[in-house]
Amino acid sequence: MKRILIVILIFFAGFTVSAQVPDALKQRIAGKTKLTDIMVEVEDYYKDEKKAEVEKRNNEEEEFENDYLRWKRWEYYHASRLDEQGRVIPNVKTKIYNGIREYEARQSSNRESIIQSSYSTWFGFGPTGITRYGQGYNSGYGRVNCIAFHPTLADYLIIGTPQGGIWKSTNNGTSWFSLSDNLPSSGIGGLVWDRTNSNVIYALTGDGDASGGGFVSSYGYNVPSLGVFKSTDGGTSWQVTGDFPGVVGNFYGYKLMQHPTNANTLFAATTDGIYRTTNGGTTWTQEQVGNFTDIEFKPGDPTIMYAALRGSSLPLWRSTNSGVTWSSASTGLTTSSSRIAIGVSANQPNYIYVLAGGATGSGTFRGLFRSTTSGTPSFISMTTTPNILGYPNDGSDDKDQASYDLGIEVDPDNASVVITAGINVWRSTNGGSSFGATSRTQWYDNPAGIDYVHADIHNLTYNPLNNRLYSTSDGGVGYSTNDGANWTFASNNLQILATYHADWYEADANLIQCGTQDNGTSIRYTGSNTYRHIYGADGFDCVVKDNDPNTIVFVANGSLLKTTNGGTGVSDVSPAGLNTFPQVARDYNSSTRIFAGDGSEVFRSTDFGSTWTTFSAGIASRVLTTCQSNSNRLYCSNGSTLQRSDDATGACTFTTKSGTPGYPTGVNLTDIEARPSNSLIIYASFGGYVAGSKVYSSTDGGDNWINISGSLPNVACHSIAVDASNTIYVGTDMGVFVKAISMTDWQPFYNFLPRTPVSELMINNTAGR
Questions:
Q1: CA dihedral 291, 293, 298, 300 (to 10 degrees)
Q2: Rounded to whole angstroms, what are the CA distances from 415 to 115, 425, 646?
Q3: Quick check: pTM over 0.70?
Q4: How large is the angle between the packed helices 47-56 and 35-45, nearest 10 degrees?
């Protein structure tokens, strides 16, 4: 029987510390390159924030976001992509790109004909619709950075995501399909749909918003740029344009702009400066150095341009010769903002609006400023209250995430209507002098008269064909037909959700639960791809009770939570001392016994998570694997060390199995799986970039190891699974590979699966999925 696997994908952008790193922490990590050394300092620096996290992590009235959590995401990403000495790799995206290209270059046969004749086809499993349920809040479909519009068809949209490439809609977002399954970079910072030729699309790669400001130059932890890619067939195929000159190390993309009257002239705002091409991307010139986050033309006069310089006391820059030379134009602007965004309007071409975020990326709103003299800009402050960058819809807090999400648009027909974006959308009808009593959107709930748009809005953009205003956020796409007064959140059918882990229900292959970044925890109970959203913010691992699909233990925002009614009610069942991002696993032979591990201890429950017993010496922060054929055998790992217990239902003691004969060095273990029929025959996947050290097997539970990496590409492997016929599947940074018992080597298993990292593989043998 041909097998169909359900894959749970995480389009690994490299999770980000979205605020700039505090100076005191910068000093502590200065010169440190090993992940373990960096995280020792981070853990100590944020120890008070960790305590606060435990106190508030079940308060669904506040989005769970803090710098410590962002660091843990960053750690999770890099743990599988270190060099041989355990150091964070500054050019990790180049490593992935080179691994993909090297693998493709040495393939002598047509991989599509091989895999299409041997294995089944991948299909999307959702969610394409989300229903809030119980304590569910802040639901969404995945993060979107930018949007661009067809030159003549108003309902044709393309969006760029930090993790899932480029997607297109021909019906204003009712449905979407991917344009970038074969694009070598899944992180998109800017898009241009050529206004003179709808077959031409430009994509600026590299996820600028996730670069976090000051941290990026030391350690590349999100998706760096590979430059600008160009399609001349509407997105069917892509070719890289010319190199950006002068680039040293990683850089990241923020925005791509096309000249209003010369289609071959484009500008890219990046962390490494402003780049210009006059020949459709064949060559690029660096016109200004610096970390530029925004760029705009003066309406009606493209010789005048404005650009936003990040983290500078002179944040606004201006050109009077179509971007060839630049000079500061910051008179009257605050000197203490980490980031600004620029707004202009055709209604008043001489107006320039500047939205200024906090000085450190958190804590203050510096104000909205306006100049009415574009020739020699001089700004006045329009308002500094309420805090239009914070969490509450009334602006009553003192927080912001301006280093990560900041945007502004001005009505092209009325320059007095100003719309701003941060965590929520706010709207002013008097030129920014006031922003009303409440925001126009609310990330958490839907108070009367306020519309839902997912939090963390990265971009606001008008469609010039119909003046619809679009927002792109951590949850998808929203739009307004009345200049931001009301909003519709329309992201159904986007398959870009960044998913950490999931669990399935053997008796019903339609049921699956998943934990996602920034979009919470959701469950699929039926054959429909509409999911039940039961909890918000960050979901992670989960386990479904095998005789009761309404009873689930799941990790959310660092806690272990439990529901016995499919999400209607949720209670905290965290054992004392539980750390962030624990793993959970079922006992296949007991409907009530489950395990959890958080890097320092292993926890066991015999009542499906209501109470726990603690066992020391566990290291299950990365891997916690139970065995179908033996309840007493448990494998756990933090990446660098692998341990095995042979009495998991009793004393639960551990012996170390890393460092045994044949065990690889210079790479971290990312996943381990036992044959369904024999718990001593195991298969382990490894991250890192040591060629030929990708997958190993052992027939004696880890006492001895055999390298079965074969021809696997030199990219990180993240997940592994074995089915009832002993066929092995491995999820890598470039998709899934398969090796049946009769095969001598691995075959790629794409079949309509995008070339994307795969964080988990699961098999339902009963259903053949």
A1: 120
A2: 56, 17, 71
A3: yes
A4: 70
